[in-house]
Amino acid sequence: MKYCVQQKDTQGPKVQFKESKQKSKSIVNDQLNKCVTDPKNDFSLRRSKTYNGPDSKYYQNTSEETRTSGKCQSNEFYIKDLNCFPEDINDMAKRIVKDTKNSPTKDLMLLALKIIEHVVNNQDTMKPSVNLSLYIIERDTRDTYVNMIINTIQLWFVKREKLLQPPRFFSYATFVLQMYKGMKQNKVLSNRMEKEAYSRKQTLLMLLFKICEHCLMPSKENTIEEIECLFNIVDSIGRDLEQEVPDTLKQLYVSIRDVMLTRDCSSSVKKTLLHLIELRASQWSLPSSAVHYYNSKTDI
Q1: Are 209 and 95 in the same domain?
Q2: pTM as predicted
Q3: Which of 1, 36, 103, 174 has the fewest Cβ atoms within 10 angstroms?
Q4: Which helix (H) or strand (E) element contains residue 61?
Q5: Does residue 281 share a domain with residue 253?
Q6: How many CA atoms lie within 13 A of 77 on its CB side?
Q7: Distance linking the first and last C-alpha atoms of the chain
Q8: What is the pLDDT of residues 237-267, one digit of tens each?
Q9: Where is composition skewed (Polar residues) in this entry (predicted)?
Q10: 8 Å CB contact between 249 and 291
């Protein structure tokens, strides 16, 4: 009897142990399957929502534009790019980049002023200046920096006769254009601007139009530098003007034709203006043969 009890006791735990092992294996397998199939438990690396890399939809759109027009450029900021700035801008920018959200309002406003003043006098720092500004704007949820940039460039245009004599004016125009293009191409900033009651995109677009008008003023000599500045802007934003403010674009092209037909301009100026007229007529995409002609030194 004792032997039977012992036999049962010894077998009991063995049977119990086997059942427990099977259950544990089953539970582990179920958990593994759940981890694989349940998207909530997927801990693989993911792209952030603001990532504009090669596998994102936004990047594919801009890369397609790059292949067709060659106008889109990446606006990536690198901390090493700050070395091109003077020490005061470099130090302030590093502090703000490190913690943009908690940076003092005064520092953000002062840096915006310093960047504009520096880039207008040093066009070779255009790219790092624009990339730094876009980087800060994307992270500055208070919009202090972007408001200071826009307010300042608008004020400077009003006072252009005093503040923006050539060649400063051309650097200024390039900075405004690159800021517009950069904010438009940046997915985060573009989405933010679409929801704004006060459209910064529209403000920059209309400022660029005013810069174009300035290049065509009757009282001006219409130098090739001014007309090339005009061309670079219209070539970049002509499609946007046509879609958003078509009457404004028509007004601009009336001025372009007037300059070409009624003023005593050099052949290079007339050729550039003719290029603009044909560019619009061909819906902003000229055939390669036409581009080659306008880029050549042949007179019209």
Answers
A1: no
A2: 0.74
A3: 1
A4: helix 57-69
A5: yes
A6: 19
A7: 120
A8: 999 999 999 999 999 999 999 999 988 889 9
A9: 50-67
A10: no
